[in-house]
Design a protein that fits this description.
Length: 404
């Protein structure tokens, strides 16, 4: 409360399982609202948690991803009870939980004012309320000439350009059970042909960003095709900006038919990740050319050296998803990159349109590097510019920024 300004508020949302002499199947969402003038946090209860996690979120995602029509219901379902406590608030720090990690608050449409929520209030996403205390208002302290940008894109998933096709005898990770779980459930993998869909748009994406950086005399190194590999990623030390354009995945936990061997999947850090060069070989249980397997799990991302990194951009499908731990934010890629040291994460919540993503990223980096806007403002302005061209949230609302 002491850190908040008079026109600011903080909301921490908690998913709570209802207890009535015993644990029940009922779910509540409880928001704690903190304002400068409050003597204590105000409590807002969303009593229909089960409906929010089934019908309401299904309607939201169907409206955005399939129908691409005006969603007049989700504002009421996910936000309206909070609005009476946020009158006069200009800036909202929001820590979500549960179903709130599957939607972008900015895309909620207020049928009364006929505006999207990000047109009514400035929303800054944070992982937990305690992270708010760590936020540093002095953004981008480094001069642009000191920036170190490293961009990964267009990975050679099949290892087609490898000179050494013998593979590494040290590697045995491809035989682990989680490999088959990835391949069977993910849209990027064609089980019939055993191939991972290539992403030619990501090559243009990182090359365009590199051009913007070079025009502004900023160091920028790109890793394409076989260079976009796991080894090169793990060698990085405190890049200012790390941009990864590839496939992302999250595997839902399966309660049924779980045996002792599958208990390891209780850890969501082993069920989310990104694909880099040679990942297709691993998914087909073949050896790669080195000891790394091309699949960077969230567990491995924890060990990246990102201390001092201003921003990690995960330009991939559904990189924002992950299992929710009460009060701990998304326990997946997002949290892993933050724990590794990154101050901010820009990531997606649903399968993104390739061309719209390229446009968004181009606008964002022009704002950041050329116009020298703070990263959150650069992202907001890029999103608003895209909104003018594409009216539906499917195109401009897939990405969210969490952190500073």
């Amino acid at each position: 409360q002491a850190k908040l300004k008079p026109n600011e508020a903080l909301v921490e949302m908690s998913r709570i399982q209802y207890y009535d002499k015993k644990w029940t199947d009922s779910v509540l969402y409880v928001a704690l609202v903190v304002r400068k003038e409050y003597t204590q946090p105000q409590i807002v209860v969303f009593a229909n948690g089960n409906k929010m996690e089934t019908g309401d979120i299904a309607f939201y995602r169907k409206s955005i991803l399939r129908l691409q029509n005006q969603d007049n219901a989700s504002y009421k379902n996910f936000y309206e009870p909070l609005s009476q406590h946020l009158k006069g608030i200009v800036k909202l720090y929001f820590s979500g939980d549960g179903v709130y990690h599957q939607l972008n608050l900015a895309t909620l449409y207020n049928p009364t004012t006929k505006k999207y929520l990000n047109e009514e209030i400035d929303i800054q996403l944070i992982s937990t309320a305690r992270d708010f205390l760590l936020l540093n208002p002095q953004e981008q302290k480094k001069q642009l000439k000191e920036y170190q940008m490293h961009l990964f894109g267009y990975p050679d998933f099949a290892g087609q350009k490898l000179k050494n096709q013998q593979g590494s005898k040290e590697r045995s990770l491809s035989q682990e059970a989680w490999v088959s779980r990835i391949s069977k459930q993910q849209r990027f993998f064609d089980a019939l042909s055993g191939s991972v869909t290539y992403l030619p748009g990501t090559k243009n994406e990182v090359e365009t960003i590199q051009k913007i950086a070079q025009e502004n005399n900023i160091f920028c190194k790109i890793y394409l095709e076989n260079d976009a590999n796991e080894e090169n990623l793990k060698k990085l030390v405190s890049p200012t900006i790390l941009h990864i354009a590839t496939h992302g995945f999250f595997i839902e936990e399966q309660e049924q038919n779980r045996n002792r061997e599958e208990k390891k999947f209780d850890n969501p850090l082993l069920r989310s990740g990104i694909l880099l060069a040679e990942a297709e070989l691993t998914l087909n249980e073949k050896n790669t050319s080195n000891k790394e397997n091309g699949i960077v799990l969230a567990q491995e991302a924890l060990n990246l050296n990102l201390q001092g990194t201003e921003l990690v951009v995960l330009s991939a499908c559904e990189t924002g998803l992950g299992e929710v731990k009460a009060g701990e934010g998304v326990f997946g890629l997002q949290r892993s990159f933050q724990e590794a040291g990154a101050k901010s994460i820009l990531m997606s919540l649903w399968k993104v349109d390739d061309y719209a993503t390229q446009e968004l990223m181009t606008l964002f980096y022009e704002n950041l590097l050329q116009k020298k806007q703070p990263k959150r403002l650069a992202f907001q302005n890029a999103q608003n510019a895209l909104k003018e061209k594409y009216i539906y949230p499917y195109y401009w609302g897939a990405f969210v920024m969490v952190g500073e």
